[in-house]
Amino acid sequence: MNYGFLDFLTLIGSLGFFLYGMKLMSEALQKVAGDKMRDILARMTSTPIKGVFTGLFITAIIQSSSATTVMMVSFVNAGLLSLTESIGVIMGANIGTTVTAWLISILGFKVKISVISLPLIGLGFPLLFSKTNKRKSWGEFIIGFAMIFLGLDFLKGSVPDINSHPEILEFLSAYTSRGLFSHLLFLTIGTILTMIIQSSSATMALTLIMCNFGWIPFDIAAAMVLGENIGTSITANIAASVANVSAKRAARAHLIFNILGVIWVSLIFSHFLSAINWFIIKIGLTSPHDSPEAIPVALSIFHTVFNVSNVLVFIWFTKFIELIVTKMVPQKEDAEEYRLQYINTGLLSTSELSVHQAKQEIMVFAKRIEKMYGYVSEMFTETNEKKFYKLYDKVEKYEGICDRMEEEIADYLTKISEGELSILGSKRITAMLNVVTDMESIGDSCYNVAKTLLRKKDKKVWFDTPVRENVIQMLELAKKSLDEMYKNLEHGYSNININPALELEEKVNRFRTKLKKDHLKSVEKKEYSYQTGIIYIDLICECEKLADFVINVSEAVEEINN
Question: What class does CATH assign to 351-559?
Answer without folding.
Answer: mainly alpha
